[in-house]
Amino acid sequence: MSQNQNPNQETLSNLLQENRRFPPPADLAESANVKADAYEEAANDRLGFWAKQADRLTWSKRWDEVLDWSNPPFAKWFEGGELNVAYNCVDRHVEAGRGAKVAFHWEGEPGDGRTLTYADLQREVNKAANALLELGVRKGDRVAIYLPMIPELPISMLACARIGATHSVVFGGFSADALRTRIDDAQARLVITADGGYRRGKPSALKPTVDEAVERTPSIEHVLVVRRTGAEVAENPRDVWWNDLVERQSDQHTAEPMEAEHPLYILYTSGTTGNPKGILHTSGGYLTQVAYTHHAVFDLKPETDVYWCSADIGWVTGHSYIVYGPLANGATSVLYEGTPDTPHKGRWWEVIQKYGVTIFYTAPTAIRTCMKWGDDIPARFDLSSLRVLGSVGEPINPEAYVWYRENIGAGKTPVVDTWWQTETGAIMISPLPGVTAGKPGAAMRPLPGIVADVVDDQANSVPNGGGGFLVLKEPWPSMLRTIWGDDERYVKTYWSRFDGLYFAGDGAKKDEDGDLWLLGRVDDVMLVSGHNISTTEVESALVSHPKVAESAVVGATDPVTGQAIVAFVIPRGNAGEDVEGEEFAKELRDHVAKSLGPIAKPRQIMIVPELPKTRSGKIMRRLLRDVAENRGIGDVTTLADSTVMDLIAEKLPSAK
Ligand code: ATP
Ligand code: MG
């Protein structure tokens, strides 16, 4: 548990008041895929509800039991059932006469592109599956995938799924060491990589990192290399070129049915709070929930929508909402290789205009960055095709939510703030775009079929208006099955804090209507003069100041108050020169006191050029706590840019 938890203080103080409401547009409400009755239907018969959702998929053998929970917390969903995940994502759409439909509009960063229809995807996946078989990969083997955002990435994942190999995708920005530990942990036999990818306007090499990693990974037999940048690479005896091996394979392959609980993939968490954990997801339940939530939360109409999730496939968001959910639903998606500001800061909006994207899913960190760059940039593009916007990864500050809705969604699109984790596999708490009157900053309600609550220290449900720990009270189809190779850590991390409840590690509050607001990690909660205060609420108050683009808040030991609030602030581009002065710091402190009350007033405001973030874009507050408490900086291996901490340390002497 966090060192910040005071046993006498059971709940989080509830500081933020937010009264804006955004009901769904009438036409969306009218034609929505999922309407309000779904909540009641699922509440009346949760397992029956999930069985009905499982029928969105094509099963080779029907299940005997929807849920086997006889050995908690080890769940088996759709026990006895068999299906092939790749068949469900690709072949069945072709068989139903939709082979000519576009699966991916791929957009390379340099401006090159490739369109893959479902029929194309079927041929490519079959060839790749045959290639894996030729390399000796079999059902149950693990395959590490270390690729940029190119079509070969989803193709490789689906090829694994097709033959029953369990993939472990490692984000292409990770170091040789990080890749090596993940390969070793999963005992992968093969790595699929590329010579490189394009990032920030230039080729960025991947193969040398793999070469370094596999020098010391005895389980790896082959390295399968895709040509992307044409960069020269060292060739080793175990290397095989994708162009040689995959291209000469037959494009016919019969998908083999797998048991519902067959391991589909291992994915390591982002490492925001500590050591990444190898989260195991299986087949039938996972695909059921990602397909259902993609249909429900984004209101996907496969015939007319063009969907785009800007995440990297190296994170769970990309697994569930670029690859498995959209493909299971037969969606047409955009797949984009690069960064949002290459070659210019309007690139994302240009992509939306080019493909007529209707549904866009991104992260608060990206939204705040776009706010920092200025409203005039998206205003130059035609974004009128958009009808639903989504957010995931961190709590979205109300100001960022409203900016997103106004500047990207023309003031009319619903914004769905989706709470979930690598561990949950799929979205758990989110508005439904045709049902929910959205509140900026709130994830609102558990989706139909999901049972979540906020509890105090003693596992008692807190009343409306209270705050505490977010828990999940019933198993769900896409839940993690274990931490790879470590059942004990699985039980200890998630199921031991509260008896019989899944402990998410996040703080949350219930407002007066019973709607849920995520308040950040329990480990980040600050204890100031006997009040548990959420970092998220103070950060949101700071971001609501017109000159603040982004902020991170931590609690630092204080002789008087126990902990005191220290805020790190990035000013907006148009904030002017005076942001370094004592006056600005005072203005911000007063602004927080006015928004949330004097208890939340930061002791210190530090103006910084950047914040430490994980490679998936989440703020790493524990490093800022080290700075605020004048300690040596802790483990930075999951940090995206380690020079950021030097930039911040330089600012220290001028701390106000
Ligand atoms: P690690 O578990 O290794 O520290 P991580 O928690 O960052 O890494 P992920 O599984 O990628 O790894 O992130 C899940 C977490 O992200 C959630 O527990 C929550 O803290 C945060 N999160 C995701 N979506 C939301 C959201 N919509 N609102 C608030 N928080 C969110
Ligand atoms: Mg986590």
UniProtKB/TrEMBL annotation:
Listed EC numbers: 6.2.1.1
Purpose of the protein: Catalyzes the conversion of acetate into acetyl-CoA (AcCoA), an essential intermediate at the junction of anabolic and catabolic pathways. AcsA undergoes a two-step reaction. In the first half reaction, AcsA combines acetate with ATP to form acetyl-adenylate (AcAMP) intermediate. In the second half reaction, it can then transfer the acetyl group from AcAMP to the sulfhydryl group of CoA, forming the product AcCoA.
Family, similarity comment: Belongs to the ATP-dependent AMP-binding enzyme family.
PTM section of the record: Acetylated. Deacetylation by the SIR2-homolog deacetylase activates the enzyme.
Binding annotation for CoA: R199, R200, G201, K202, T317, S529
UniProt-recorded name of the protein: Acetyl-coenzyme A synthetase
One Pfam family hit: AMP-binding_C
Annotated keywords: Acetylation, ATP-binding, Ligase, Magnesium, Metal-binding, Nucleotide-binding
Modified residues (N6-acetyllysine): K618
PANTHER family the record matches: ACETYL-COENZYME A SYNTHETASE, ACETYL-COENZYME A SYNTHETASE 1
Native source species: Actinomadura yumaensis
Gene3D superfamilies: 3.30.300.30, N-terminal domain of ligase-like
The keyword Acetylation is assigned to this record: yes
Enzymatic class: ligase
InterPro entries in alphabetical order: Ac_CoA_lig, ACAS_N, AMP-bd_C, AMP-bd_C_sf, AMP-binding_CS, AMP-dep_synth/lig_dom, ANL_N_sf
Domain annotation Acetyl-coenzyme A synthetase N-terminal: ranges: 37-89
Residue stretches making up the AMP-binding enzyme C-terminal domain: 537-618
UniProt catalytic activity: acetate + ATP + CoA = acetyl-CoA + AMP + diphosphate
MF GO annotations: acetate-CoA ligase activity
Essential cofactor(s): Mg(2+)
Binding site for ATP: G393, E394, P395, D417, T418, W419, W420, Q421, T422, D506, R521
Domain AMP-dependent synthetase/ligase: residue ranges: 96-476
Binding-site residues, Mg(2+): V543, H545, V548
